Amino acid sequence: MKKILIYPALLLSMLLFSCENFLEVESFDRVSDENTIFDKSSAETAVRGAYRSLASLNYSSGFQNTILQAGGDVRSLNNAQTDLNIINYSLRSDIGFLSTYWANFYNTINRANHVIDKVPAVTDVKLTADLKNQLLGEAYFIRAYSYFDLGRVFGNVPIYLTPTKVVADKLGVPKSSQAEVYALALADLNKAETLLPATVVWNRATKFTVYALRARLNLYLNNYEQAENDANSVLANTSYQLVKPFSLAAGTPESVLEFSYSVTDLNTGYGLWNTSNRQLEPKAVIHTLLNDPTVGGDRKILSVPNASGQFIGGIYPTNTSAAYGIRTAELYLIRAEARAKKPNPDLAGALSDLNAVRTRANVPNSTAVTLEEIILAIENERRVEFALEPHRWFDIVRTGRAPAVFNLNDPNKYIFPIPAGEILADPTLTQNPGYGN
C-alpha cells in the first residue's frame, strides 16, 4: 500500500504566478509519497508550493504584525493581550501565534526538502538538466530563507534536512545553535548559487537573489567584506537600480525579491493597513519622520493621515499587491554598513551608498562624518526606508543596540520562546533560556 502524506507542508494546492507563467500549472492536494515528485510537471508544482508557502505562510500578515510591533514604530489598533506581550517584550511560550510561526517555517522547509530529496531522481526527459538544477537551486534558496528567519526568531532550533513524512520523523532531534542554523542557511545559499541561472526575475530565485540574501546573512554574521562583495554582485547589474522619485518597489528595478499574490491568493498583509478593520497604524514618531522633508522626503507616502487624523500605512495599495522580500535599497544600505564596519573602513564608500538612498528619496545628503556618526545614520536610514517592513526589530537586536533603543537589557528576550506545544509533543526539545519550561 502506498503511504499517504498527512504532513501539512505537502498540501501543494495553491497557485503562484511569475513572469514565465511558471505558476499557472494545476496542482494537486493529496498524493502518495512515491508520486509526489515524479516528472517535470510535479517537480514544478512542488517548487511552486514551496514559494507559495514562503509568501503566504512565512511572510504572512501575522509574522509582519509581530515583528513590526516589536520594532517599536508601529502600534496595534486591537490592544489585545498578545499585542501587549509583544510591545512589553514579555512573550510567553503558550501564545498561539508562536506555534503558527514555528509550523509555518517548518512547513516551508519540508516542502523544500521534498524537492531537494526527490528531484535529482526524476528521469522525465522534459525535465532537462538545466531546469532540474534551477528547481533544486530554488529549493535550496527557499530553505535558506526559511532557516535564516527561523534562527532570527527562535535562536536555537532543530534542523531537518530530509522530508518529514510522519510526525515521528521530527521527534528527538536536538536543537542546533543559532550559529549552526545560520551556517546551514549560508551553505544552502552557496549551493543555490551554483545551480541557479543569472537571470533577473523578481518573484523567483536567481543567482542575484542568492547574492542579495547572502549579503543580508553575512551582515548578521559580521562578515562585512563578504557582505560588501555580495552587494556588489547585485548592484553591478543595471537591472537593479534606485528609481527616483520614490515609489513602491513591486515590478521595478528597486525590487530584488518580491512575493506575488493574485485574486485567488490574496496578500493578507493588506488587511493590516487598509481595511476598515485594519490592525496596524504607524506611530506618531515614525509618521513625523516620514513626513519630515529632510528625513522621509518622498517616503511620506508610507504614512498618510486620513480625514479623521489617523495614520494609514501605505505599503500595500491593493490586496493583490506584492510584498517585498529584498529591495535594491537594502543592498545599498547593507553595503554602506559593511563598508563602515569592515576591518579597514571605507567611510567615503559608506556615505556614498547612504546618500544614494537619501537622494532617491529626495532628502539632503547626510551630515555624518565620523565612523560612529555614519553607522548611526545608516541605522536611522534603515528605520525610515523600511518603516512598514519587518526589519527594525532584527536590526536593533543584531547590532547590540536593544538596551539603548528598546530599553531591553535581557538578552534572553532577543529571541522568542519555543512554543509550549512543541515541547509537550517532544520532551527532548528544551525551552530557550529565560522562558521557563
TrEMBL record:
Residues 319-399 form the RagB/SusD domain. GO terms for cellular component: cell outer membrane. Keywords: Cell outer membrane, Coiled coil, Membrane, Signal. Residues 210-237 form a coiled coil. It is found in: Cell outer membrane. InterPro entries: SusD-like_N, SusD_RagB_dom, TPR-like_helical_dom_sf. Residues 1-23 form the signal peptide. This is RagB/SusD family nutrient uptake outer membrane protein. Residues 65-219 form the SusD-like N-terminal domain.
